[in-house]
Each structure stands twice: as structure tokens, then as C-alpha cells.
Specification:
Elements: E1 5-12, E2 16-23, E3 28-35, H1 42-53, E4 61-66, E5 70-71, E6 74-76, E7 83-85, H2 86-93, E8 97-102, H3 103-110, E9 119-121, E10 134-139, E11 143-149, E12 156-159, H4 172-185, H5 196-210, H6 219-227, H7 231-255, E13 261-264, H8 272-277, H9 280-285, H10 291-295, E14 299-302, H11 307-321
Helix pairs in contact: 3-11, 4-5, 5-7, 6-7
Enzyme class: transferase
GO biological process, one term: glycolytic process
Organism: Phenylobacterium hankyongense
Length: 322
């Protein structure tokens, strides 16, 4: 008897573990989110989802997008104390096939499938280059980056650890921020700034430079305080958006991303208006001799609530055709 569902798909990050089932028509069903840190392992949270959602009609395949590098079918999570392999999941759940892939690689697979209402242009509305590479990036618990190479033979997602590349300051303020982060961590990567913890570190660094109090407790409080008119919090978010624009422009050059740059993650949607009207696009385009090149690249904010699930479902469909 054919199972009711063709596969399990998931998106597991440092904060949330999201799962859904894919039916025979390729539709994503029963999405559900769990607090990842409440579980001792990936198998535990998958088991709870399947028990409460699929019951006895377990899906035969699984594609799980994970926050971290997947090496030889194994993952050691960057921001969780979990380790798992495709073989472990095959044995534990008796799946026919399992694939782990980087969460931003899954998002890259999803980007060409997203409807217009799941995207918000950042800056001018432009048509992306046909069959040209694209890049997706985003700040959340960490900072993720992936590309998508496109061509006649199909699309290929390119997972990276670009968030751990070095942060490149662009003015004296950012040089001072870099010095403080380097003194604290030994090395200032992009993720040290463009992440939830990085946003809070940026707030504290700017307060120290201005010699003013920094009474807020975390990055969520900084975002809320900016909405309420707090001067330092607003300066922090403006600087954050500017740095994000610079990094996005660098990645557009690195990938040759004439197919577009997509900004996702948990933080960017909370400052959507600021991204659309602030310094993001100006910093994105500020690339010296290559400014005319990046000026032709569209930038979009991803509003879809679970793009990695969409990408995992696309990968599941490819597995079924093999």
C-alpha cells in the first residue's frame, strides 16, 4: 500500500526545528515548528513530529535542511550541541532514503519557486538575468550564505560557510567596531556582526564608542527600542543594514549573482522598511569600478515563512526521480 505522504522535509536551525510532510502531488502539508534547544537530538524532535502528525503512515524518504556544513552525509551543528548522520536517521526511522543539506542551500533551491507576494524588492524593481547565478544570505542565530548555479542541465545549489569570512570595515566607525570584536573574539567574522548576537554586540560597541549607557538586554530589545525611537538603537539598526548591504554586494560580485540577491533569515523581516528605504542598497552598489555591474542586480527580501522547507521539498522531488 502506497504511503499517504511521499516524504518528510525539515529545516533545523539554532533556534527552531521546522518540519512538514510532502504529499504525492508535491504539496507541503502540516508544517510545525519546535524549539530546537528543548530536545537532546535531531532524532528526538523528528520522532515527536512524526508521532503526532504522520502516525503509522510514516513517509519513506526525508530531506532535512540543517544549519551547518554537511560533510559526507554528517552534520555537526554550528549553534546546537547535536551531531547526526544520514545513516543514523536511516537506521533510526527505517527510511528508504535520507538526505541532509545545508539550510541556505535549501533556500537557494527555493528562491526561483517563490511567488511575488513572498518577496519584497529592496531598491529598484529589476528583471533578473535569465539562467544567471543567484545568491541567498541571511542573519539569524548565525549568518548563512549559499548560491544557485543555473543552466540547461538544471540548478545546482552551492553551500558555503561565507558567514565565517572576515568582516571588512568600510569607515572609521566600523574599524573601531572591528577592533573591539577582534579584542573580544580573536577574529571578527561577518557572523560576529550580522547575526542576532552580532546585532547586540554592535549595539554595545557603538555605546562604548559614544560613551553612553547601553541598558538594553539583547538584540530583540534593540529592535523594539528602535521602533520606539531610541537614538542608539536606531543608529545600531542603520549600521547593521549598511553592513548587510556591503556584504551582500561583495557576495553578488563573488557569485556573479546577476540572477538576484535574496535576503532571508529571522532578523531582516523585522527591519523590512529600513532595508527598503535606508542604506542597504547604497552600500550594496558602492563597489568602485564594479558599481555599474551591481547596479543591475535586483535585491529582494524573502517574506516566505519557511523557504528552506520549500527547497527541501524540491530536493525530495529530485530524489524520487532518481
Amino acid at each position: 500500500m502506497k504511503p499517504q505522504y511521499e516524504g518528510l522535509v525539515g529545516d533545523v536551525g539554532g533556534t527552531n526545528a521546522r518540519f512538514a510532510l510532502v504529499d504525492a502531488q508535491g504539496h507541503v502539508r502540516h508544517p510545525r515548528s519546535f524549539p530546537a534547544r528543548d530536545y537532546a537530538s535531531l532524532a528526538d524532535v523528528i520522532g515527536e513530529y512524526l508521532e503526532t502528525t504522520a502516525g503509522r503512515k510514516r513517509p519513506p524518504r526525508a530531506v532535512i535542511a540543517v544549519a551547518g556544513p554537511v560533510l559526507d552525509g554528517e552534520i555537526e551543528f554550528t549553534n546546537l550541541d547535536w551531531q547526526i548522520s544520514e545513516g543514523d536517521l536511516l537506521a533510526h526511522f527505517e527510511f528508504e532514503a535520507v538526505k541532509l543539506l545545508n539550510d541556505f542551500a535549501a533556500q537557494a533551491l527555493a528562491c526561483p519557486l517563490l511567488e511575488p507576494d513572498a518577496l519584497r524588492p529592496i531598491g529598484p524593481v529589476m528583471r533578473p538575468g535569465s539562467d544567471c547565478p543567484l545568491v541567498v544570505l541571511g542573519a539569524g542565530t548565525g549568518f548563512g550564505v549559499a548560491g544557485l548555479a543555473r543552466g540547461d542541465r538544471g540548478d545546482l545549489a552551492v553551500a558555503t560557510e561565507g558567514g565565517h569570512a572576515a568582516f571588512a570595515p568600510t569607515d572609521e566607525v566600523e574599524v573601531e567596531v572591528w577592533r573591539r570584536l577582534t579584542a573580544r573574539y580573536g577574529r571578527a567574522s561577518i557572523e560576529r556582526l550580522l547575526s542576532g548576537p552580532g546585532l547586540f554586540d554592535l549595539y554595545q560597541a557603538l555605546a562604548d564608542m559614544e560613551r553612553v549607557n547601553a541598558p538594553l538586554a539583547d538584540e530583540k530589545a534593540v529592535i523594539d527600542a528602535a521602533a520606539a525611537g531610541d537614538t542608539l538603537a536606531n543608529a545600531t539598526l542603520d549600521r547593521f543594514c549598511g553592513i548587510l548591504g556591503s556584504v551582500a554586494g561583495d557576495l553578488a560580485l563573488s557569485f556573479g549573482a546577476r540572477g538576484g540577491v535574496f535576503v532571508s533569515g529571522g532578523i531582516a523581516p523585522r527591519m523590512a522598511d529600513r532595508l527598503a528605504s535606508g542604506g542597504f542598497r547604497a552600500r550594496f552598489e558602492d563597489k568602485g569600478r564594479l558599481t555599474p555591474y551591481v547596479q543591475q542586480i535586483p535585491t529582494s527580501l524573502v517574506l516566505h515563512p519557511y523557504p528552506a522547507i520549500v527547497g527541501a521539498a524540491r530536493e525530495l522531488g529530485q530524489m524520487e526521480r532518481l
